[in-house]
Amino acid sequence: MDRRSFLRNSALGGSAAAASALAAPAYAQGSAKTLTMVTTWPRGLAGVWDSVERFSDNVAGITGGSLIIDAKGAGELVGALESFDAVASGQADIYHGADYYWVNQSPAWAFFTAVPFGMTAPELMTWYYGQGGMAKHHELGEIFGIRPFLAGQTGAQGGGWFRKEINSPEDFQGLKFRMPGLGGKAMGELGASVQNLPGGEIYQALASGALDGTEWIGPWSDERLGLQEVCKYYYPAGFHEPGAGLSVGCNLDVFSGLSPEHQKAIEIAAAEAHQHNYALFIANNGPAMKRLVAGGTKVQEFSPEIWDAFGAASVSVLQSFMDDEIFADVFESAMNGMTESSDWMQKSDSLYTLQRNRVLAAM
User: Fold this and answer.
1) For position 30, what pLDDT does the model report?
2) Strand 213-214 and strand 245-251: pairing?
3) Phi, psi at residue 43, to the nearest 5°?
4) pLDDT(15) > 50
């Protein structure tokens, strides 16, 4: 089956129709080419919009202005969660988002953001650039007419914000909670009523009582979103996104029509935005955490019993997709890469960090 036939006969077709009201993207006149980017983020959203701007600035800088990314915030052309369909159907040129938003198209997309009990940020980077992960990303994208690249990294994401303390797995029963991706499916196994809301809708949903709790990203982004104003309890360590990648995805026909120089510019611009974004989140999370605590946020940890429940639910969710050939193939590649890199880092980085902290504490 060719790619267009696949798209016509898949779930993509229905939602793509909603995007068809858009005019086909037009390129700027003259020597410069403009690609219209749709995003899953409201304009200016801390951290994630920084990645959009970094990627766009990189492309313009690398190409000397001959390739321009015209970035639109969520809702400016299409809704946040319609970005993938708009690009796959050719109504926009490129998206920026978190690929686990597309798990209803294929659960394998989750690996390029995060899966529960999956890779940390360094492990994801190692798999993607050094162990074949990028090739798997491109193979998956080919099915949907997309050429994707990692283009952002939030680092480990918090376990979430709650109106009340979570003391046992039973406390998730009936809890109205926002969590996308396969982590959200695991929360559903624990009895939570899981919702997949885009970032721009979270605060209002909490303020109105439509949600009892949420995960977003980490202290910096969460503080800027104002989550501390509507939830008292924060759990910094979570199971669902130990190192969450962000991606750009270009319509494959559009990408193939670019010059080799412009194609390489997109690849390099995305890679640099990925590492820069990771540094930005890590640099800002510590100071933001201190401000949240000073402002009255109650910082908590999940009990071992809850972690065990997260683990059992996550394993169940991951195993439920193993009949999907594409998912199983990406899972094997990702887990093999994670095991290899983690084994080395435990013997080197982790041991060094432990000893460094012990030595410095004695000074």
Assistant:
1) 54
2) unpaired
3) -60, 130
4) no
Question: Hey, which CATH number is domain 3-153+244-283, 3.30.230.10, 3.40.50.2300, 3.40.190.170, 3.30.1020.10?
Answer: 3.40.190.170
Instruction: Give me the long-range contacts of 131-139 (CB less than 8 A, separation at least 24).
Output: 131/333, 131/336, 131/337, 131/340, 131/341, 132/333, 132/337, 133/333, 133/334, 133/337, 136/111, 136/329, 136/330, 136/333, 136/334, 137/112, 137/247
Q: What share of residues in the chain are helix, strand, coil (percent, to 5)?
A: 55, 15, 30
**What would the DSSP string read from start to end of 275-340?**
HHHHHHHHHHHHHHHHHHHHTT-EE----HHHHHHHHHHHHHHHHHTTTSHHHHHHHHHHHHHHHH
Q: Domain residues of the chain, as ranges?
A: 3-153+244-283
CA distance 41 to 74: 5
- What is the dihedral sign for C-alpha 147, 151, 155, 159? negative
Q: pLDDT for 257-308, tens place per residue?
A: 999 999 999 999 999 999 999 999 999 999 999 999 999 999 999 999 999 9
Which of these, 101, 56, 100, lies nearest to 78 by C-alpha position?
A: 101
